[in-house]
Fold these 4 entries.
Entry 1:
Amino acid sequence: MLKESFVAELADIVGDSHIRRAEGDLVPYARDATPLFSRRPDVVVFPGSAAEIAEILKLATRERVPVVPRGAGSNLCAATVPLSGGVVMVLTRLNRILEISPDELLAVCQPGVSTAELGSAAAAHGLLYAPDPGSRTVSTVGGNIATCAGGLRGLKYGVTRNYVLGLEVVLPTGEIIRTGGRLWKDVAGYDLTRLITGSEGTLGVITECTVALLPMPATTRTGVAYFTTLADAGRAVAEVIRAGIVPATLEFLDQTCINAVEDFAGLGLDRTAGALLLFGDDGPAEQAAASVTRIAEICDRMGATGYTLAREVAESEELLAARRCALPALARRGPMTILEDATVPRPRLAEMVARIDEIAARHDLVIGTFGHAGDGNLHPTCVLHPTDEAAIARAHQAFGEIFSTAIALGGTITGEHGVGAAKLPYLREQLGEEHLALLRRIKTAFDPAGILNPGKLGS
Ligand SMILES: Cc1cc2nc3c(=O)[nH]c(=O)nc-3n(C[C@H](O)[C@H](O)[C@H](O)COP(=O)(O)OP(=O)(O)OC[C@H]3O[C@@H](n4cnc5c(N)ncnc54)[C@H](O)[C@@H]3O)c2cc1C
């Protein structure tokens, strides 16, 4: 239980209208997009400035009260579940785009701006904000930076960290620091911008983001190829890269996902296919068209059972929608989906998919797999019932085996969703004790009282 005097001081900082304590108001902040994890906070605050955040964190450090920063709460690793109660700090009031600079190819925004909103603001100036998570209409730029979100354009454009130039960050002890800035070249000091990117709200609260933009590609072209097995699709991916093509999009769905998407969206996909490869490229019209045509030819040569190329932008968008709706489509198959995020070196993709299928069958589970074939990032997704405790236990066992397999194949337990509370038990196997001990020392340097998002990274 929080002391009344603590809550009164919080209310003084943010104002009575920006604090919630009623039981019903706390419920939505007990969870994020991760099933099986929930814990109600004691209080939720909605600060309106870095100065208020600094005051809150000073107070929390003094009183040893946990604080969990939260953007849209769309993460898939229980990163915003307040495991020890305390304060959930929601950053969505900090929602202003402060600057789009076509001269410097950058944007400055507050952390609560949605990814899609920043993308649209950049597009209005003929510029591209490249990070493109499937959740972009809801996720925030601050949340994307704190998780180093990836997305559908990762192969060609990289992930969020490749675009973060500078941050304003409030430390748990209340100091406000700036890391990096507007420069593409700046090696003064340790690279704290990179350290805070992906730190999952455990080192500081991001209050301003300076991100790089690119000239908007003239056009995007997309195509889809079908294969008998995902292993065949994996071999085609390897061949595309070997041919020197680095397309903007190279995504796959397995048969379970194809059928789920078709039931959900009725896009006319080939339900008989064992796997689907969605490919796309952007750039000047002729170049983008030539690129997708070459990819289609390679798929054909590598045994595709069929392919189609989108004739116009609207058709391209429909194909991309097939990939984007994979999770909601699978979610309709059962009341609960556990979506995971293992990643392996690209040449091991087909092997990893085969291992996932074998593990799912052995544990008698429905696991559909989709993901970013271009960067070896798979999202095995288990569909089950929340009251079926035996199946949930089998799913935990199965995912443990999937993560161990990913590590054994030279991969990682998370390519883009983060560690949060959900993956923490598996981190030691990947990083080892000495590495974990260093993470803990870094965490202590930033957060000596251990108040910021406890029970997650650095714990
Ligand atoms: C349908 C769906 C599709 C998705 N697709 C993708 C995808 O393609 N790629 C991908 O990478 N992820 C994807 N995700 C996961 C999720 O959207 C990302 O992790 C996203 O970056 C989270 O942003 P958020 O604003 O919701 O952050 P939250 O979930 O609120 O928070 C995530 C983490 O960031 C911290 N945090 C948030 N804001 C701040 C801040 N201002 N300062 C410090 N720490 C902060 C939190 O403490 C937490 O640790 C998807 C999720 C869903 C539901």
Note: The chain has a mean pLDDT of 94.
Entry 2:
Amino acid sequence: MMPFDFDAPISRSNTDSVRWDAHLGRDVIPLWVADMDFSSPPCVVEALAKRVRHGIFGYTHAPVDLRTAICRHLEHDYSWRVDPDWIVILPSVVSGLYTAVRELTKPHEAVLIPKPVYHHLRLACSQAPRAFTEIPLALEDDRWVMPWHQLHDLCGEHTKLALLCNPQNPGGTVYSKSELTQFAHVCEQNDILICSDEIHAGLVLNPALRHIPIASLSQSISMRTVTLMSLNKTFNFPGIGLAWAVAENPTLRQAMQTNLHQTIADPGLLAYTATLSALQGGESWRQSLLEYLRGNRDTVIARIRAMPQLKVSRIDATYLAWIDCSGLNHPDPHSLFLAAGVALSPGAQFNAPQCVRLNFATQRARLHAALDRMALAIGAMPSA
Ligand SMILES: Cc1ncc(COP(=O)(O)O)c(C=O)c1O
């Protein structure tokens, strides 16, 4: 028996949920944007309630304990020793991505990004604007990985920054030490800085794997890296929002502070409360969450594999299944499933229109209902 009940459905209507309101009034199961249908841990909810009951919400600085609590967490979970002074508190990982691209490169310089990847990595480049080259991920032994031996050739004369997403969204890859070392080695050889989005670090589902922050590999790698992290995903409070950048190199750290307190607002005070309480008391909830998500992941993999037109590979981390629908021979798989009452993230958002991404962080009964609808939609196709 799990100490937390993830099967209990919680209505999200009338909460202005982005995910649930997009198809309001229609019989659609929303399994797209990456938040979860689970309440945050009781320790977080109680800490927020206490803070709200106080009733005064004046200008608030980061709690004095926050940076040291983050350092303890990084050392405990990832054996990564970080000095509290290396940490820059940000309102979100996305704002960190845009800052990194703008501030760590000059207008004529270029960026390397994985493909497919969470769309804001690509948008951060196109909006800066900076030229970018995509690193095409490929399936190897059922994992989405980079073409390690071609990385060097993808670096151009003006390439200055490489964006990494580890664990990888979409695809759920947890990069190994040797893979990260190869990536870092190419960056060192070509004098390229690294910005590593590690927001899914707390969501490693495979108990045999550990998340390794790329900056933890060596001091020289750390000196060329900005790591972006947050507890928003793991503890399900992205609507409150707080992230941090770790940069040992003072020049990179300074760059990540650009526009902070100006056009980039400080986190709201409840974000400090949520993050600190999750750091201090959220671990047993996280372990239960991972157990539940493993069950959902296994459900998704088994049921998608029973649909021969779809392909899904191993998912070692995240609550997102990356599904290849090219076997359907349908011009727009996302619309097909939406018409059948399941809203998935369209692959086009990740530059891969023949795929869809399914968020399985919901109650298992709802997940089964969505998978039933997907199977029915496929069964009803003229060629089926
Ligand atoms: C890889 C990745 N980075 C960043 C974010 C968003 O982070 P934040 O809400 O802190 O901006 C997401 C959300 O899905 C994500 O998957």
Note: Residues 283-305 form the longest helix (23 residues).
Entry 3:
Amino acid sequence: MGTVVLSIDAELAWGFHDLPNPPDRRIEAARPSWERLLATLEKFSIPATWAIVGHLFLPECDGFHRTHPASPDWFARDPGGKAENHDSWFGPDLVREIQSAETPHEIGCHSFSHVEFGKRETTREIAVAEVEASIKAAASMGVPLHSFVFPRNNVGYRSVLSSYGFTCYRGTRPSWWFDSLPTPRAGKLLDATVVRSAPPLVSPTADEYGLVDLPASLDLFGFEGIARSFVEPAFGDPIVRQAKAGIERAVTEDGVFHLWLHPNNLLDEPDFRRLNRVLSYLAARRKRTSLSVETMRTASERAIDESPIRERTPP
Ligand SMILES: [Zn+2]
Ligand SMILES: [Zn+2]
């Protein structure tokens, strides 16, 4: 029997601040969609790991962050000022909504200012600054951080995470059959329409720093644009089918089915419909089987507790 984990990359405007043309619509949707996503999770009592950009915990800032090694250029779009006046750049109110939800969510980390840890330009000093600033900002709201989601899934400086007490991160999705094709996008389309394979379950594994890698299985919005508008009317929503297939795998097999999304992926009613269909299916299967739904933290801790290596270690 397996487990389903849902992780959320929660970033508001920080997810796009380094792009030459940030997508206004996604940034505008990010806050209302965050609240609607939280309400939908509440409706089905599904706990998630909210990996939140550290800057969103702040009540205010100077807009420069001069002690940060990437300052001042990296913070050029940071408006500074008070949280209530810049609600795309701050979110302590949104953090409080998660904290006061009835469903026990985990609050994790998505770096402080959406730095890609695996990028060549990212120095160790920057990674340390991102981690330290995140821990400090989260602690100011009483939030201890355990799980990390790398911005743009660009994995790097895992040793820094480990030395600052993180225990778990979301690694990259294992390869699917179409990834090795010369044209993976065509293969993905073929899978959505004809092959209709089930996405992979993953196994949490401890890395050389003692961090647990809990890889992604399925991006709930990894099939968008023209491909989605072509496939969905004729074949149904391919992501709903894949999510259901992954959930069924987790009902019958050991392993973790790890779904993820951004609140800013939820733009239009068909997006919320997809979310509702996946979460209602998950809630129904959890009720009728012994399938569990866990946060990244609890799933990774359990995996380590149950590992044969740990069992052999004397108390
Ligand atoms: Zn700031
Ligand atoms: Zn992100």
Note: Residues 24-43 form the longest helix (20 residues).
Entry 4:
Amino acid sequence: MTIVTITAGHGAGDPGAVNGHITEANIATDMRNMITLYLERRGITVRNDGQGSENQSLRQAIRLIKDSDLAIELHCNAFSNARAGGVEALAQAKDKAICRKLCEAVSDVMGIAVRGNEGGFKSEGSGQHSRLGYVRAGGVILELFFISNPSELATYQAKKWLIARELADVIADHVGVKSCVS
Ligand SMILES: [Zn+2]
């Protein structure tokens, strides 16, 4: 059976990066639920770190990775310069190909840059998130966009369902589930 784990970064009292009243943890939870909906429609079994607005701790999220065909944790980047932007994914080298496809999907829908010169892929030793236990356990950390960039945040909010659908397509293809007519 194909199992995909989709988890939301931060949570359990940690909001992650914040822009006004919008938190990274809320965006990650929302996107987790949207991607999950599209994957389940295809008959894929999905593991989540909570239901609805629940966003369990990183430790609980890491426990879900084992025996998954693919595990992705959703995050946003943030930087002091509000113009910093783009999408990237942190993972082990084994997941380079899926990282590139995930980043390409977000970049295409949002019209934002793919960061770095490896198609958005970054090895686990880089990035602003020091706690990369998720990557060490075999998962992918997808930094969707910069929450600190007002333009990217507005684009995200306008297009989030499209982003979720495209990411679900990429994930389903990766785990070998054929597209269905929808
Ligand atoms: Zn984060």
Note: The mean pLDDT is 94.
